[in-house]
Write a structure and sequence with these properties.
Layout: H1 18-32, E1 40-44, E2 59-62, H2 68-78, E3 85-91, H3 92-97, H4 99-108, E4 113-118, H5 153-160, E5 164-169, H6 175-182, E6 188-193, H7 197-203, H8 209-215, E7 221-224, H9 232-235, H10 241-244, E8 260-267, H11 272-284, E9 289-295, E10 304-312, E11 326-329, H12 332-343, E12 349-353, E13 364-368, H13 378-390, H14 396-404, H15 413-421
Parallel strand pairs: 1-2, 1-3, 3-4, 4-6, 5-6, 8-11, 11-12, 12-13
Antiparallel strand pairs: 5-7, 8-10, 9-10
Bound molecules: iron/sulfur cluster.
Residues 13-14, 17, 19, 48, 119, 123-124, 196-198 line the site of iron/sulfur cluster.
Length: 422
């Protein structure tokens, strides 16, 4: 025995609005299929149709304009119980705005049903033309009739891979059509044609719904696909990614009693971000709080590469660095990108490759041939030199993290260790 999906028979639409018909027959179809209200998740969009939420006893989610198909897909992936039904309501305007979301859900053949309320214009905002307004149909923004061909959302979703697509007229009892769409396995879309009485009927006097559709070159009918259904389980196959991460446990010691701000900078492809990441993780293994931020040009393979790392025994509340206490510079690109703030360092230490001329700065300068390990390893070597020279934390922490991250065999760890012990 199922409960009633509708809280009221008095729905909040203008008199004669087709949305009323769709809401009533959607709930009727779902009830006939045996769904309890709490077995159904109704995802609605912006537009007149979306005000149905408050009238439903089902779960409801109301999204931003055009996003209800994407939201519905997200709800589908998050469900533990595969017997729940996700029904997405969207208007012709939302379907235009979020067309890619609908196509992507169809391409994946997700097991959700999208009900497109195509009343041929933006009803809620004053009757403007949408991408699904039939050609020749008059709206408040196309007084001579829409000059453009509408998107054929049925053909688009059918071609994208949907299991089931149908276009029907929103006239009479449409519950059997909706029942068919809801009972499909995989992605289904049903486009229900209506004419908004408040704008469409007034602007197109005497025109009949079915004639408008046919004269615009569209057909009523249904289209079946045979793409494999993307199941709930497939969607969950990567859900344990976080659990695959190795936990970094505190097992080493550090000597910091306040915030240490570190900039590592060199050239793209020279291991700057990797060295920052290893430094950050090694610091975490000593119990320090850490932030890491990378910055580089959009074209990631050329120019500078800079990383900012904050280490602190207390919480770090801002991940950016203005003037660092430690600057580690391994190439001309890195130096040029950080020259100004290095010049403003009133204390701290500048670790700089010996091929470079240090700028004027009050920081202590340590110059060393970091590039002797090869350009690709210069940042790693310089970062490890900083840990050893400063004694900021136990040197074993960095070797442990390199081993844990599988870097020991890929980086010249032993060669660097020998160089550090020289
Ligand atoms: S404005 Fe149009 S679409 Fe909106 S409720 Fe009224 S008749 Fe329906």
């Amino acid at each position: 025995m199922t409960g009633s999906m509708l809280k009221t028979q008095s729905l909040p639409y203008c008199k004669g609005c087709g949305h009323d018909l769709i809401a009533v027959h959607t709930t009727k179809a779902l009830e006939r299929l045996g769904y309890d209200p709490l077995d159904v998740i109704m995802v609605t969009d912006i537009g007149c149709h979306g005000i149905i939420d408050k009238c439903l006893n089902t779960h409801t989610v109301h999204g931003l304009h055009g996003r209800s198909a994407a939201l519905g897909a997200g709800v589908f992936f998050g469900l533990e119980d595969t017997d729940k039904k996700v029904v997405v309501f969207i208007g012709d305007c939302g379907a235009t705005i979020g067309l890619q979301h609908i196509l992507e859900a169809a391409r994946l053949n997700l097991d959700i049903c999208v009900v497109v309320h195509n009343n041929m214009l933006y009803g809620m905002t004053g009757g403007q033309t949408s991408g699904l307004t039939p050609q020749g149909f008059r709206t408040t923004t196309s007084g001579e009739g829409n000059p453009l061909t509408a998107y054929d959302i049925c053909q688009l979703t059918h071609t994208a891979g949907a299991s089931y697509v149908a276009r029907i007229a929103g006239i009479g009892d449409i519950s059997a059509d909706l029942e068919k769409a809801f009972s499909q396995k995989g992605f289904s879309l049903i486009e229900i044609m209506e004419i908004c009485p408040s704008y469409g009927v007034k602007l197109n006097p005497g025109r009949k719904l079915k004639d408008v559709v046919k004269e615009s070159g569209r057909e009523f009918g249904e289209w079946l696909g045979n793409r494999q259904v993307f199941t709930h389980q497939q969607g969950k196959k990567n859900s344990d990614l976080l659990q695959q991460l190795q936990l970094i446990k505190k097992q080493f010691s550090h000597k910091l009693d306040d915030l240490q701000t570190i900039v590592i900078s060199g050239s793209a492809g020279e291991g700057v971000q990797l060295s920052a990441n290893l430094l950050a993780k090694a610091a975490m293994s000593t119990g320090l709080e850490v932030t890491q931020k990378g910055s580089y040009p959009v074209t990631v393979g050329v120019g500078f590469s800079t990383a900012e790392i904050n280490l602190s025994p207390d919480s770090v509340n801002f991940h950016g660095i203005s003037i660092p206490r430690i600057a580690i510079i391994t190439s001309t690109d890195g130096l040029n990108h950080n020259r100004n703030r290095i010049q403003q360092m009133g204390s701290g230490t500048l670790y700089i490759d010996s091929s470079l001329t240090p700028p004027e700065t009050s920081a202590k300068i340590i110059s060393r041939d970091f590039r002797s390990m090869g350009a690709r390893n210069a940042s790693i070597y310089a970062m490890m030199y900083y840990i050893q020279e400063s004694g900021v934390f136990d040197m074993e922490a960095i070797y442990h993290i390199m081993e844990m991250e599988g870097k020991s065999g890929k980086l010249p760890v032993e060669k660097i260790r020998e160089a550090l012990n020289d």
